[in-house]
Amino acid sequence: xxxxxxxxxxxxxxxxxxxxxxxxxxxxxxxxxxxxxxxxxxxxxxxxxxxxxxxxxxxxxxxxxxxxxxxxxxxxxxxxxxxxxxxxxxxxxxxxxxxxxxxxxxxxxxxxxxxxxxxxxxxx
Length: 124
Description:
By secondary structure, the chain is an alpha+beta fold. The chain is 35% helix and 13% strand. The protein has a five-stranded antiparallel sheet with strand order 1-2-3-4-5. β4 and β5 form a beta hairpin.
């Protein structure tokens, strides 16, 4: 299982939060490609954790958009091969799973990449 910060299950790798802001140069050294590759390798598990209640439809995962009062599956879709996602009702979209985590968790791209890396046990 891959935990999300808002998921109720205990995380695999629990780390205490460091509220101090790292230096900008340190924050910039995230291997986004490696994190995205690792996330795509287990994409259905990642999506099931960050977007519970969704369902698989071929190569797409259809889910409720947690950023709005979404009551019906259909408009929020993620391509499980590429990680590209879109909410066709609002026009929100992104090109990878890091941007999806940034969007759903309301985080920066760097913070989302680090969160996803921790979920997956990947060195970022």
